[in-house]
Amino acid sequence: MSSYSQDSHDESFFRRKVIFEPSKNHDYYTYRIPSLVCTKNGTLLAFAAARKNEGGDWDPIDIVLKRSTDYGETWSSMKVIAGGGKIPFDNATPIVDNQTGIVHLLYQSNYEKCYYTFSKDDGISFEKPVEITKIVEGYKNFYNWIVMAPGPGHGIKTSSGRLVVPFWLSDGSSKEFGPDKRGHRPSIVVSVYSDDDGKTWNRGDVVAENNDEIIVPNETSVIELADGRVMFNIRNESTNFRRLVSYSKDGATAWTPPVYADAFFEPICFASMVRYSKKPLNQKNRILFCNPDSRKTHVSAKVGHTKLSARARTRSNLTIRMSYDEGISWPVKKEIDPGISGALCFYSNGNVIDVIDMPTMAEGKKNKKQVNGRQIFNEILNIKNTFAGHKINVVVEQVSAMPGQGVTSMFNFGQSFGVIKGICSAMELPIFYVRPAKWKKYFNLINAEKDASRTKVIEMFPKISQKLSRKKDNNKADAILIAKYFENTRENND
After folding, report:
1. Fewer CB in a 10 Å sphere around the end CB: N or C, the chain?
2. 75-97 tens-digit pLDDT
3. In the chain, what are the domains?
């Protein structure tokens, strides 16, 4: 018997809402590089890079914005903030001033010019942008960059009133986008700041340089700590797959030498970091950090035409972490979106023959994943051949989409379901469906912690415990319990 389980999102902890999604109503291929901030009045502003053609970094890109005044329940129509041409406008980096209510915004065009604008009405309108490229050009005395960008994500206003924005600069020598395009590697990280609410901008010190130990530092998240120090959390392409951190007392000068932080896994992707609360108002300091926490190596070690110094990981398993001690430790960890997840269990006469993660494969050029139908077919065929002459049943967990789940997410979910169903039909294997509430009630797992199924399976099948050593192996545990439930309640009656 084979059983299949697909992980459903934890509806009790998160609510999912798709804000930007390609459709036939727009000529955008994809949306990337998001920025989400909350204004003084509680309005959510969601910025994104709306990409045309094939969605590459050098394709035409518009910076777009949607607003929500009901905490994300509904969103306004999309508005173009910058763009409209044949070059990329990207890296929207907003800064919320919780004293004045002003929303400052920096962004780049064609990776060679930088602009500043601001909004006094919660993002309904923005002032005419002002070019501030000359500030960044001053770094050419130290580093002859030809490609640059702020952020992305967001900047901050410190308790002293200073606006701080991370920038990354590249000499463009890598040519990873082809011989006729400027590359984004190698690169360095610097800080840019304003002490007069954006009227003028200044160069801070260089934060991280590219060398033998620190490889391609670039996209950076920033936060002010409770003691007034500013922390930069830096993406890089190190071979140890850890993010870099550096600290400054004023967000501009005397940055500490960047060090790798064990708590922050680096799949070579952008990350986000924000303050959630601060003493004494909330009695606890809380900082949130979010990025794809995937240990799986991507099939390609290249970006365009350039071989990476470290093999990039898949951009999946989106995870949020929380710190109570200003980033020293991160005891709270929660998966937001594991991507395509699930497991296959092969079960016979009360014994688990094998259990594996749902096989996946790359889809297109955007690090997306879909189920690997060929591998699933081969796995089931091997079991069928091994147990030739025996009756084989396939049991599938029958789940439905969550409220508010987006069209793309639902399509991917249905695609995974359809692959399993199609393979079984081709093999003439009978399929039975089990609702989550049925098997969870049977094993007393209703409203239980997500990891409870894994604990129960280890107790029931101690010989399989080595295959369930990780917390994320709860998918495998679910598949085993579905098979066990079917055996105990249905199979003997067929």
Report:
1. C
2. 999 999 999 889 999 999 999 99
3. 132-337 (2.120.10.10), 340-493 (3.30.420.10)
